[in-house]
Amino acid sequence: MSERTPAFVLGGTGYVAGELLRLIAQHPQLELAAVMSDGQPGTPVAAAFPHLASAYPALKFADLGEIESRIRRTRRSALFCAAPHGAAAALIDRLLAAAEAGGTETHCVDISADYRYATADAYQAVYKHAHGAPARIREFTCAVPEHLDLAPTPHVAHPGCFATAALLAAVPLLALGLAEPRLFIAGVTGSTGSGRKPVEGTHHPLRHSDLYAYAALAHRHAPEIAACAERASGVAAEIHFVPHSGPFARGMHITLQAPMRKPRSSAEVQAALAEYYRDRPFVRVVAAPPRVKDVATSNYAHLHAVADGTSLAVMCVLDNLNKGAAGGGVQWMNRLLGFDETCGLTAAAPGWT
Questions:
Q1: CA 204: distance to chain centroid?
Q2: Which residue numbers are catalytic?
Q3: 18-73 confidence digits (pLDDT tens)
Q4: Pick from 302, 306, 304, 300: which is nearest to 322 by CA?
Q5: CA within 20 to 30 Å of 240's CA: 42, 179, 218, 281, which one?
Q6: Domains and CATH numbers, the chain
Q7: What is the C-alpha R_g of the chain?
């Protein structure tokens, strides 16, 4: 085996960072070099992620200065950012500047929201604060891996988890002219999608055995879905999105409905989706409505479509932490570094999460 590429992770003790560490631990071409935590530098990684103690028994969290110094001296490295939006852009900018100053090669995949929009104004319109490093935006492309063979930039921004699921369903419908560009999307996500910090929306007694909508028709992922869908399909579409909180920890289910351009049967829509994703190893078009447990913890997404002659519905399930965040990020990094796209990501879902 050739020498493995050092990987750096920003985002410290968050759920997505923990998932990145799990995936890197089993990746044959990546080796974790350091993980940053501003709040807990010097503390054991295993204290924050006990389930990873066997993979990282002695590793401690690093501070930003240590990461910066090591990237400057590492010939070729992978940088994953799972820091909160609003903070990620400046962190990434500082570390990429360090790589440039050291003459080293660093590719970044940002899993925060900071580089998902094509302009600083578009970002500010959604997040209501100025972008932290607007000059870097042109170095990032935002797309689901299945919708872009090669990134035209050295770095990539991975869409959010809701956006990933919605885009997997929406883009083929728009690109193939199967649906009118008025898409109605309802999605249900697990509690890990709200992050590690305890809040009312993730507090177990409130969320257990319950289901409720939030930010209906006003969620910040809606404009992201619209922008990415147009770039991938070439068709501008109205996006009407209602997210829901589900009573489970991991996984996501979305249902997309739209009027059809012309009558088609369920079998015809299924066949069109299957052909569109024929060479995409992590997307499977399945014969029955998909279930979250069939994909939870994996990097796979399952799609299923039905049609009634005038309208259609496409259902998509995926794991919000893996395919919708860390796994999609590793999938992109595999491409940026010239590895096989599936490297380190083919583990099946356990089925009984």
A1: 24
A2: 161
A3: 999 999 999 999 999 999 998 888 999 999 999 999 999 999 999 999 999 999 99
A4: 300
A5: 281
A6: 5-142 (3.40.50.720), 162-320 (3.30.360.10)
A7: 20
